């Protein structure tokens, strides 16, 4: 049965995709509470998150918005563009994790160098 609300359709598609709320929230880079609010119709995803939802869940974004599906719609859609966007999103999220790690390393290096310089200045002064 197709739900009458965006939140219900998000929950239905997530469940059919075999994802927990936590798993889907992580893939979308939102909090569990945000996803819960969408599924409970307390708020709605912005357009960019709606596109991401469609990509991750492999469903048309128009179905999420309206509940209307194309006449020839099947559960195993072959939407190359949506899948491409989903793959780009996953790569970007992996890059974000790698960048955070690199920034942490640089910050540690800068702190260490600053401490060394401060020690040298104390010895000279």
What does this structure look like?
The chain is mostly helical. It is built from six helices and no strands. The chain has helices at residues 6-16, 21-28, 32-39, 47-57, 61-66, 80-124. The longest helix is centred in the last third of the chain and has 45 residues, at 80-124. The chain is elongated, with a radius of gyration of 22 Å. The model has no long low-confidence stretch (mean pLDDT 85).
How large a portion of the residues is in β-strands, by DSSP E? under 5%
Helix content: over 70%
> What low-confidence regions span 5 or more consecutive residues with pLDDT below 50?
none
Distance between the termini: 78 Å
Total number of helical segments?
6
The average pLDDT is 85
Structural class: mainly alpha
- Main β sheet profile: none
């Amino acid at each position: 049965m197709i739900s009458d609300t965006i939140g219900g359709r998000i929950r239905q598609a997530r469940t059919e995709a075999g994802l927990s709320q936590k798993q889907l929230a992580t893939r979308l880079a939102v909090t569990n509470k945000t996803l819960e609010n969408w599924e409970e119709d307390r708020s709605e995803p912005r357009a960019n998150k709606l596109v991401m939802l469609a990509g991750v869940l492999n469903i048309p974004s128009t179905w999420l918005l309206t509940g209307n599906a194309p006449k020839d719609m099947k559960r195993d859609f072959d939407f190359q563009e949506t899948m491409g966007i989903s793959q780009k999103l996953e790569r970007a999220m992996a890059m974000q994790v790698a960048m955070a790690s690199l920034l942490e390393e640089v910050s540690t290096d800068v702190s260490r160098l600053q401490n060394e310089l401060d020690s040298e200045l104390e010895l000279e002064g």
